[in-house]
Each structure stands twice: as structure tokens, then as C-alpha cells.
Design brief:
Blueprint (H helix, E strand, L loop, with lengths): L17 E3 L2 E3 L3 E5 L4 E6 L4 E14 L2 E4 L7 E4 L3 E8 L2 E8 L7 E9 L4 E14 L5 E3 L14 E5 L4 E7 L5 E5 L2 E6 L3 E4 L5 E2 L3 E7 L4 E3 L14 E4 H13 L9 E5 L13 H17 L3 E4 L27 H6 L11 H12 L3 E6 L12 E4 L2 E7 L4 H18 L3 E4 L11 H18 L4 E4 L37 H18 L27 E4 L3 E4 L12 H12 L2 E4 L7 H6 L2 H16 L1 H4 L2 E4 L9 E7 L2 E7 L6 E6 L11 E8 L4 E8 L3 E6 L4 E8 L6 H4 L5 E3 L12 E5 L8 E8 L2 H13 L20 E5 L10 E4 L2 E3 L2 E4 L9 E7 L8 E8 L10 E4 L6
Parallel strand pairs: 22-23, 22-31, 23-24, 24-27, 27-28, 38-40
Antiparallel strand pairs: 1-2, 2-3, 3-4, 4-5, 5-6, 5-11, 7-8, 8-9, 9-10, 10-18, 10-19, 11-16, 11-17, 12-13, 13-14, 14-19, 15-16, 20-21, 25-26, 29-30, 32-33, 33-34, 34-39, 35-38, 36-37, 36-39, 41-49, 42-48, 43-47, 43-49, 44-45, 44-48, 46-47
Helix pairs in contact: 5-6, 7-8, 8-10
Amino acid sequence: MAIHACRILVLLAAGATAVRGQQLTNEHLRARFGPRGLTSITDVVASHTDHLGRDGFAITIGGTTLDSRTLPAPERERTADGMVYHFRGNAWQVHVTYALRPGWRFVSKQLRITALAARTFSVDSVTLLDLSLAAPPVSVFRPMSPKPSLGTLEYGAALRSGARRSLLVVAQNPFLRVTTSGSDVTMRYAPQLEWRVQYGTFTSDRALIAPVALSGRRIAAEMTAEWKPLEQGTPGLDEAEVAAFTGMVRSSFIYEPQAPLNVFVGWCANDYQIDVGTQAGRTEYLRLFDQAAAVGAQYVLYAPSNSAISRREQSMDDWSWEHVLWLGLGQKIRSGEWKTRSSQIPPSVQQMLDAAKQRKLGLLAYVYPVMPFSQDSQWLVPARGDAKRKAASLGNRALQDWLIEELVAFHDRTGIAGYSFDHTFLTYEGTSRYAQWYGWRRVMEELRRRVPGIVLDGRQAHHLYGPWSYLAGSYPHPTFHDEQPESFTPYPDLHFDRVSANRERYTAYRYRNYEFTPNEMVPGFMTHQTPRLDETDDMPQVMTADRGKVILPFRARDWDYLGWKYSVLSSIAVGGWNNVINLLPGRDSAEFAHFGERDRGWLRGWLEWTATNKDLLRHTRQILGQPALGKVDGSAMIDRDHGFIFLFNPDPRALGARVPLDASIGLLRAGEYAITEVHPRVARSVAPRILRGDTLSMDVPGGSAIVLEVRRRGTGVVNAPLRRAGRVVPSSGSDGDDMRGPMHPVVPWDSTFTGGRLTATLRIPQATLDRQAAIRREWPLPWTATDSLVPWLVPERLLLWAPIVGGDDASSAELLIDGQRVEFRRAYTSIQPEKSTFIGFWADLSRLAPDQPHRIDLTLPPLRRGQLLGVYLENVAPQP
């Protein structure tokens, strides 16, 4: 049987669909049908009906178009939960199936094609919807795919009949074109897909039609870049339309996740620098295993080098990483030298499999599915337009079949827990881009069907094709791009864990609101990808006589001691169902030794928190708008009258937040509530008596996270206090300006400042230096001069920081303290001076004497208004 998109395996709500005469009904909708298709959809709860004057289709097969307007009248068949129309046109039959399942808030429509004569044919174009509405839409909004250069187009359209109602029409692929003309609406895509009868019946992607009651709250059509202050853009989808689309995706899960995943990504610790073909390399990697197991990881994305079985210089991918694929066996699998079902597993591989199993860790093999596998030359095409270089095209059915069997067999043979897929390029010559996308989706879905419990970590680049692309996976790419610092423009912050955390929340907001990803598939991302490029803008490597080209160890010591907890909380706040753990202190022996049980237990405790609160995590919503500079953002996970609120300030300035205690954060039951702090101060009362409908006002220090628990106080609240709902209630127990955040302002932000001279007086309390000394005792690493060039290392230092947004690193600045020149370094989030990662200037003030005034004299380059976010004392450790 052909594998098609999104077979519905899980019914998400109780109840049954009724088929009565010419209609389908469930607890939400009633769909009526006429002689040729759907005639109306009624929102039962709202008592609103959308009428259709026409519901048609068209499909072009081998140059012949079958149009429902001109085909003879169809036969109708009622099924257990749907309605089927059978059209016949010469050598073809078209079966149009409508479904309305229990819990669905949409009606689906799907075409199946039966060839009466042809054995092979091409599906050129499919018009899933050819509708005539009762009245022209007042407005239309088309959500777009994120990267049209891949050949993708629209995700569908919201057809608004006014300020209160919308008809949302989508289909389960990202190659759609929706056109409107008056009351007429068409939705089509062009598969250009070769089909053979031996594959089974050709089945189109589903069209989904949902009536929506609008909330009146619309998100921006596009997100503001993460490192910029929030801009008021053109309005896009209504929040209710986003929720309706997300519900469609959730109803189409290939499998339903049962519990959060904890995946340690060795790649982000630069594990490819470790050669497990040597005893020293195996010993180093075992420290990573031990650390991952100690903090509660269940899985390890495993991609070290292994000189016993592969060589970097023999890699045939674009990035020369083939030597780390398939547990190091990638080159031999590609060439056919190692047979999955019969060849012996090399000792260097088996030892690491055994070591992981002993620690109750499942390994994820890293795989590039478009390598030029030698098993069949027919699936090979020119790579990137170079006729001399080859790649395997996922538009080739034979490659799909081979990959499915090979992935299943490798899993069964090695006992791995899953795969991480990267280098999934779908833009090669020879077949349409849709055909390649369809082929990769088929591989993923069949792999999930054959190995239901498998973990599938998604990397480049299939996440760029939207939610229908990763329904069979565990989660898409955690940062929507490469994770290394050179690959994105950062929020200005001297701690790279906080930089990565802010980007991850920004990414999660995109996944939820622009890619319609359900909570169970939104990825987390905690800690960071350690930099891998040195000051020469390359990876240090040498050619050796015995091991070939070897990548040298670089940035093995890179733990962000003062930033990592913010990152963990950020990840759990927005992606707690998929805890993707990146850098851990394991490769460097000193970091490994000093990351003790207190820190391990803290991280392990929060991962256990996600398992305990997994049902609350299903209700996660990001609140206070998209993450951006100049504002606090957050998330809430509340089920009716209990849950948690996470608040984050990515800005260096202390900022206020106002959190409405109402349905916008998921708080549904009226009554009196108590709010307590969970982090950073456990069990501190924030608002002991507050009403639903009130607004909680809080100050959040720069670069800080606050976690709150919300719980209803009893059930007998009288009506009189309820009439006071709507107040703004400030948080109790404010500490004022006592350096309780990690950044203390030296020169406040001035929106009119355009560069030049700034002066200030700074007094550092002895208590602050005492706390820095305590950090030195807690994290007593043997720091080197090179370490001191990285602002997030050597955390006992007090740093002066001038954060600049969108600055030019060709500029310079000068710092005088008490009349003496002090080195004022350019600040980057990368190790080498990468222009796009420039975030301002910093200096080490650790040697300043305490409890006496120091004159700060700064000269900064010409700047635009608002570019300088102030000047701060950084690494100020809060009092315990």
C-alpha cells in the first residue's frame, strides 16, 4: 500500500462521528453534502454556517485534466466516518473522500486516483479545492512557507467573512497556491510526480477546511528579527486561526508522544573532535556518557570521529562529515563495504554501544540521507550543479525503499535508539522538489511505522518545509538554523548560554505561531553549541600518517557557569516535551570534576519536573508577545486553575512585565489565587491573594529568569471580591536595586545617545567581591590566558560591558578608570572576530578596590539613537 501524508492514527477526543443522510456530524461540526460535494459547514457551538455554492476539484494526469465540473455525475457512498464520491473519466477514476472524525474541528477532503489502463503516469497538478463561497471574503491572509527559494509557497489561506468569522483552508504540504476571485477560491499544488500502479492507489494530500470564531487578537505577519526591538508589523493570522491550524497538525500526528524526551547532543560539545578509534578518545567520550547519564539524559546524539574505520578526507558530503555518520560506519555503508545485515560490528563501535547501554543511554546515529550511496546508480544526480559530484535524490522511489530497509536494519542490528537526520537536501535535479519532499516524508513515516518508539531528531533542512514534514519525527531543528555562534545574529549578551536561550525562545515562538507546531513537537535547546572555528575562521586540523586528517581538540572547556541555568529554564519554558541538552561539562577533565552533584541534581531535577508536569506542558503557550529586545517575554502552562508562569528578560536593562491572569494565559476558572516563586527564590510569596482578571506586575532584572506557580485558593470565593478583578497587583517582596540580577547598571540607557563620551562613578561593595571569591571556590578551574579572552569563562571576574545593537566591529572604543587606560575589548559571541556576532565592548574590572568610588570615562564610536543599551557591571552574582 502506498504511504501517503498523515495517516490519522490517533483520535484526540471522545465521541463518535454520525453519518445521517447527507451529513456528517461530531461534537463540534456538521457538514452537509449535495450531489457533487460539500455544501455547508456548521460550527455547532457558535450556530454559524458557511455555505458553499460549489465544491469541486481538478487533477491533471499525463497532460489530461479531469475537472469535476465537466465529469459525469458521481456515485455516492457513505462510510463509517465519511462520505465518498466516485467520479469516472475515460481511463481514470477519481474517488473524493470527505471525513469528519471525533474531536476534529475541520472537515478533510482527499482525492484517490485509480488508473483503468495505464501502468505508469505522471501526476502534474492537483486542485484540491475549487470553491464558490456564499459571499466574497472581506479579507484573505495567506501564511507563507519560511524559505520560498526552496520552491515552497503557501500553507493555505484564512478567508475572513468579517471581524468575527474565518474559514481556514489548508492542505498537508507546503507547495500550495491559493487564489481568490470574488466568491471563488481555488487551492492547488503541482506534484509533477511519477506514479506506478505497483505503488498502489495514488492519494493526494488532504485538504482541511475549518470554520473559525476569531479572537480579535492578531499576530504580526512576520516576526521581528530576534536581536531588534519589537516592531509593529502588518497583522497576520488571528490567534484562533493559529490554534485551529495547530489543531489540524496535532490531529494528524503519526504517533502521539507519551512522555518528554531528554536528548544530549554530543555534536554541540564538538564530539567530532574526539577520536573513539583511540583509547584516549574513548576515555574522553565516556566522560560525556557519564555526565549525560548523571543529569538525566536518556539519549545521546553520537557523532565522534573513529579513525579505526573512517577518514575525514574520504568524506563525500558538502561539509566533510561523512566519517562521523552511522556511528562512524557511514563511508563503508555508502560504498557497500559494510553490510548492515551480515558484516561484523567493529570493536571500536561495539565497545561504545555497550558503554552507552551500561549507562542506560540510547544512541542516536547521525545520518545524511542524500549521500551518493553506491547501491544503485539510478538514484544519483549532480550535486549542487556539479556534474562531477553526486548525491542521491529522495525523489527516486528506489532510494526511498533502500533507505527504509537500511534504517530499520541498522536499528535492529546495532540496538540504537534512533537517528538524527541532517543534510536533507530536496532541491536536486531530475525530479520535482515536491517529489523529493514527498519521498523524504514517506521514508520518515514508514520508519516510524516500522519502529514506533524510535527517536527522530530533525536537523537541516526538512524543518524548512513546515509542520507536515516532521509529523513522523520527534521534533524539528531546535534553533531553525545551525547552532554555532557564527551562523546567526545574536541578542547582545556576554554569556553565550543566554544568547542561545533567547534565540531558542524566539525559534519556539516561530514554530508555534508560524509553523503551527503542537507543544509535543516543539524542541527545547539548553546550554549552547560550543564554537568550533578559531581565530583563522577555520577548524584546527592536521594530516597524520596513521589517522588521516584529524580535527584537533578546540574549546573542550566551554561551560558557561553563570548562564546555564537561565538556558535550562528557557528551554523547559517553551520546549519541555523535548529537552535537547547540548554542551555538558564532560570533555574537559577539570570541568567534569567540578560539576558536582549539586549542579547535576539541579539540572536532573528540572528534567524530572518536565516528566512530572507533562500534562501541564501540553498546555504551554508563549505569552507577552514574541521574544525581542526591550521587553520581557514568557510562557504559561496552566490547566484551568493551576500551573506555572516563566518570565525572561533578554535585555540587559531591568524591565517590567504585566501578566494578565485570564484566559490569555490559560487561566479559565474564576476565583482567588496565590502566586509563589519557584525560581530563583524557592517558595517566596509573590501575590498571596489575587483574583482571576487581575494583572500581576513584576520587575525582571536584565538577563534573568523568574518561575512562578499559580494555584487557586479553595472554591468558596464570594462575589464581592470578584468585582475587584482587573486591578494591577504588584509583586510583593521587591528587593529594589541591590544587584540581585547578573547585570548592574553603571550608565543607564539613554535613547538619545549617539556616541561620544560617557562618565560615571562606580562603587563595588566588598560583599560583591566576596561573592565573586565564592564563585572562584565553587568553580576553581585552572584558567588559561586563552580562556580569559572568552567573556563567559572565568566567571569570578567582574566585567564592564557596553552592549551595542547592530554595531560595526570596525569601530573602536576607549576606557579610562581613575584616569588610567584599561583594555576595552570588542565583544563577540564567537571566538574569532566574526562581524555578525559583534555585541559591543567589555573590560575586566576584577582588580578594582572595593567600597571606594572609581571614575569611569568611556569614549564610544558614533552610534544610532538607541544602539547603546547602557553600560553595565556584568557577572554580578546574586546573593544566595
